[in-house]
Task: structure prediction
Amino acid sequence: MKNRKAISLVTGFVLAIIFALMMFAFQVRQTDIVVVTTFGKYSKSISEPGLYWRMPWPIQRIHRFDCRTQNFERAFEQTSTKDAINILITVFGGWKVTNPQLYLESLNGDKLKAETALEPLIRNAKNIIIGQHLFSDIVSTNDANIKFDEIEKAILNNVREKTIASYGVEMEFIHIKQLGLPESITTKVMDRMRAERDTRVKQFQAEGEKEAQIIRAQADNEASRILAEANARSIEITGAAEAEASKYYAILEKNPDLAIFNFRRSALENSLKNRTTLILDSQTTPFNLLKSANTTNGNISLAPDLEK
Result:
């Protein structure tokens, strides 16, 4: 009996301690941010994890909020660009609680209420920013013209200060997830993109033709330079040859018989070079030289007095 009473006393004591802890203590986790209210009024905010003491309900009440980034996404919505083209766009964003007191007082710490409040702010900012940009800033055949980063940053800056001041939450990022076109303008957009592509093709062709003209001009200049150098060298060689030949012409002018003899001998040697058989009058020029020639072993040599 005594053992049972002792066990009952210990169990009751442990339960009392647990009940006291539940009434007078609470735990803050790493993923939590806690707001303590006293008689319904804000007392303090706690973001550091650990065990804390409190007054029991209804004196003090604990409100827990998730301090991690919360993601949300909106459905396709239609908006217009600066050049009056309608597009369908989906954005997604991330937000987190930065002012737990204001978050509790304005939205009662309700995540669904927070996203409901953020939705019109993001929609209005998106429509304003998209309305300041041309369609080619969003959809273009030239990647350099697309300004997604600039548009997303402008939407975020437009929303961030309002959410912090009104609801105690901060938008950390807003990005464009999906783009679409109403069926009524799809054909027009495709025609426009095709026209842009054709313009770029013509631009590349013009640049290529310009580059080709430059290359051809350089090649022509180089060819002209080479030909000019070759002509100059040819004239130089020809002049040197003529100068050298003029020496021999001077000798032949002094001895015209020698010049005639050399001419006849060259003609005779060329005609008999391939063992040709000729039947001619011995007086026919230049074969009249054979009258004074000696033959040895099939070779022809002219008389010594003529060779001189």
